[in-house]
Amino acid sequence: MKRRLLFWTVGATVFSTFASAQSRPIVAYLGARSPSTDAHLLAAFLEGLKDAGYVDGQNVTVDVNWADSRYERLPAMAKDLATSKPAVLVAVGANQVGLAAKAATDTVPVVFGVGADPVDLGLVRDLARPEANLTGTTLLTQLLDAKRVELLREMVPGAKSIAILINPTNPGAAEQLKSAQVAADALGFSQTVLKVTTEAEIDRALAARDSASADALVVAVDSFLIGQRARIVAAAASRKLPAMYPSREFVDAGGLASYAPRWVDMYRIIGTYAGRILKGAKPSDLPIQRPTTFELLVNLGTAKALGLALSPAFLNRADSTIE
Question: Parallel, antiparallel, or unpaired for β 320-322 and 243-245?
């Protein structure tokens, strides 16, 4: 009798756990990069989801998927995830992943995180009231490229030429490059554009003769380039090339300086939005969120290794420094 009772007790517990897991809503998370580069951003997303009342494994299931910076995989991955009919599809880490999610479904709610203007990308027509099934955040990176060039001038006042490292396959690349070049022209910089789409091209570009004369480097925002930050930072260091980067992750990896929004803050918002949709909100009721604060981060150890004497005025403007 006791054995039979134990059997039914264990069986009921297993069934209850299984039924609970089956009844939880699913949030499909599609990241353009990889856990090795974006684990901290996924954690920020989960914090935002928790703030909205949802905890992975308790009352929601978060199905995490990574494209490992292989843009060509995104359309198929987004389509597969949309076909599984999750409660929310989160598409983050690159302009391409937002576009892939839009193409994959017009019914599953999508929360995206992109770098360029969502209107320019064709994701939505109105930031305040995004139509249909899409909402999310934008870093508005094209507005920051000019500022990064200006900050580079302050850090290296004697520089006469800069190299601009960019991935031409990024849908926002043309606007980014135009913004950087206009700022560079205004400051009297001659420019070399380094277009890269593979790891080998990064090494060749930064070692090429036409980039050897550059006095400084500007790196554009791009999912692939962020995933290759260790390689880029090491290449810049070997050439003793001062560089301005598009996110603090580069500086944490030893890069000289970055100017960018706080990405973790934006990913928390994405998590909060996913939670609000789970509670019944429509994507069209959630305006596209834009960053309101920007962070200048400087690696003092790298500046010393490069022989840069950064002015007190410049350092006073830095939001944070790394020794």
Answer: unpaired
